């Protein structure tokens, strides 16, 4: 390795290129890795052979980059020291991997922070996700959250990113998807759902980035809210909440923990959970009013 690059945004671009470059290999390795392994991930969830496979590929490729000092993953208890670089990379190697057994879309989420982990969303210098759908695509942006532009790319069989277009949230929202069980929703969230259901069509597939892709394409709202049984919801701030908030806010939408932008949520731990609500500005504004 040469001298670590010191420009965080240049390193971030290299990280996004690297995630795209390994995407075909991740996708090609899925068919033979649909079995569950013994043990659980740090969040207490079952682990598929594909989760470990994708994580190992990404750690090896990202950790080798000049400028990356730390690699962290939803599948690893602790972050990995990968050198002296200025940025830390947090990855959900296969978001929604339980969809592999039912052959539904899933993907890879990546967040690039300027500095050490755990980090707040305002420390992001890039974020995005690869979606393994009918085609392999990437949605990502580089720069400070307030300055980024979110773009969609097709990922070629050679792992190259081909820009398609910039992404701006449609003004006439049509879809919603909410995680958790109805009886677990707090009453004020259930009241919000009652209101929203009259206006939007349900789109929920069990993989955050696939459901978020519906919102980015058609407008609407995705939420994995706080639950009576899980006051901080299910999704992880470092690996899911911050990157998806970066993307939605960068595309002209809004994010909320229920009490302000997810990007302002204090970072307290590598695997901390956070309620996630992202989508069109007025829908999130109404959500925050409902949650009081
Ligand atoms: P549920 C996938 O395991 C994940 O972390 C997100 O991608 C997704 O939004 C959520 O959990 C699905 O959770 O409770 O619907 O299975």
TrEMBL record:
Binds 2 magnesium ions per subunit. InterPro entries: FBPase_C_dom (IPR044015), FBPase_class-1 (IPR000146), FBPase_N (IPR033391), FBPtase (IPR028343). It comes from the Archaea. Its main location: cytoplasm. GO terms for biological process: gluconeogenesis. Mg(2+) 1 binds at residues 74, 92, 94. GO terms for cellular component: cytoplasm. It catalyses: beta-D-fructose 1,6-bisphosphate + H2O = beta-D-fructose 6-phosphate + phosphate. Gene3D superfamilies: 3.40.190.80, Fructose-1,6-Bisphosphatase, subunit A, domain 1. Mg(2+) 2 binds at residues 92, 95, 240. Substrate binds at residues 95-98, 204, 234. It is found in: Cytoplasm. Residues 40-144 form the Fructose-1-6-bisphosphatase class I N-terminal domain. Coiled coil: none annotated. This is Fructose-1,6-bisphosphatase class 1. It comes from Halobaculum marinum.
């Amino acid at each position: 390795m040469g001298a670590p690059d010191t420009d965080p945004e240049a390193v971030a671009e290299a990280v996004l290129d690297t995630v795209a470059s390994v995407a075909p290999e991740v996708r090609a390795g899925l068919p033979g890795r649909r079995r569950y392994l013994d043990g659980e991930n740090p969040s207490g969830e079952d682990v598929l052979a594909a989760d470990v496979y994708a994580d190992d590929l990404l750690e090896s490729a990202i950790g080798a980059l000049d400028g990356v000092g730390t690699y962290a993953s939803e599948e690893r208890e602790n972050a990995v020291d990968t050198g002296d670089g200025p940025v830390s990379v947090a990855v959900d190697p296969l978001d929604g991997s339980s969809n592999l057994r039912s052959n539904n879309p899933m993907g890879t989420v990546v967040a690039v922070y300027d500095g050490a982990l755990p980090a707040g969303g305002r420390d992001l210098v890039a974020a995005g996700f690869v979606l393994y759908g009918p085609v392999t695509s990437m949605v990502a942006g580089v720069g400070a959250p307030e300055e980024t532009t979110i773009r969609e790319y097709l990922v070629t069989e050679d792992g190259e990113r081909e820009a398609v277009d910039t992404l701006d949230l449609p003004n006439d929202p049509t879809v919603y998807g909410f995680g958790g069980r109805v009886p677990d929703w707090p009453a004020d969230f259930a009241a919000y759902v009652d209101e929203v259901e009259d206006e939007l069509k349900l789109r929920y597939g069990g993989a955050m980035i696939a459901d978020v892709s519906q919102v980015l394409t058609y407008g609407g709202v995705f939420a994995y809210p706080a639950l009576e049984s899980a006051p901080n919801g299910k999704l992880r701030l470092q690996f899911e909440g911050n990157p998806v908030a970066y993307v939605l806010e960068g595309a002209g939408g809004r994010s909320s923990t229920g009490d302000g932008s997810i990007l302002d949520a204090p970072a307290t731990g590598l695997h901390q959970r956070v309620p996630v609500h992202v989508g069109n500005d007025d829908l999130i504004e109404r959500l925050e009013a409902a949650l009081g």
